[in-house]
Amino acid sequence: MPSHRVTIISARGLTKSYGRTQALSGVDLDVRQGEIFGFLGPNGAGKTTTIRILLDLIRRDGGEVNLLGHDPRTAGSRLRADIGYLPGELTMGSRRPARELLTYYGNLRGGVHPTRIAALADRFKLDLDKPVRGLSKGNKQKVGLVQAFMHDPQLLILDEPTSGLDPLLQQEFLAMVRETRAEGRTVFMSSHVLSEVQEVSDRAAIIRDGRIVATEDMDALRNRVAREFTVRFGAELPAEEVERFRAEGNVHDLVVHGTTLTCTMHGSPDALVKLAARHTVLMLNSEEPDLERLFFTHYNNSGTDSEGAERDAAA
Ligand SMILES: Nc1ncnc2c1ncn2[C@@H]1O[C@H](COP(=O)(O)OP(=O)(O)OP(=O)(O)O)[C@@H](O)[C@H]1O
């Protein structure tokens, strides 16, 4: 991605404490126009706090923010019209039907055509006639997503957007995010689920204990992440066949127990799949590491030096 693109989100040295809890200890971010930018971190890392500061929903203790060319502290409602925001915790106690609530939100942003609301609701399989208060968590999340997308904002800021969505709707959501990018608009989304960010993002920042520990192109992150594979064969493998697996450059930690082989791999599983296909495969399973493991295996030593991690990723 060309680095000369317009910067849509810039944050420098953001700090925030809640009493004795230091939630952010100097967060820097640069998000460029037309990219999908993932914001990854385990629970309590500071994602929601950062997002709320970006939108001036809470006040920062220190640092600078620029969103679409403005400081959100002073830009007021004009800036809000160019942003779609999905909060991490939706409080929707209204007795009104979703259609009415969404029309009301749309009017606050200068009006959104009813057919646009209906089309988005249709994609998410949301019933617009039910009172919002009685909706399930997942259906409330859909209302939140429709209100974030419906006015076609230049910038979408989404806090844990797939929380509560079933897998098919997660895919629908990711498709919408890609369409947004194709129109040159920008998406910033937080998540603690590595796979969804990996699937859709161009770049991601990883936050841990209130600091950005890495900002990476997703291709670089994909290669850093070791996935665990388990293959169960129809019969025990001859020793020389096991050696073929062991000889593959990106196969590590290989263990064979009876008919079951486990290993970890970086990058593409192509070689493993082709070797396995020489035999009868009863089961093949691949698990991604959770974020915590990724942090401990890859970022522990690089500590808080995000430039160092970027250098490593480029190497
Ligand atoms: N209103 C608050 N009062 C006190 N502490 C808070 C408040 N909000 C957040 N914190 C603390 O600040 C830190 C960062 O929290 P934050 O909600 O930003 O993390 P997060 O990455 O969004 O986590 P999650 O994925 O669980 O939503 C945590 O230690 C949290 O307990």
From TrEMBL:
SUPFAM superfamilies associated with the record: P-loop containing nucleoside triphosphate hydrolases
TM segment ranges: none
Pfam family, one: ABC_tran
GO molecular function terms noted in the UniProt entry: ATP binding; ATP hydrolysis activity
Record keywords, A-Z: Antibiotic resistance, ATP-binding, Nucleotide-binding, Transport
An individual GO BP term: response to antibiotic
One GO cellular component, as annotated: plasma membrane
Protein name: ABC transporter ATP-binding protein
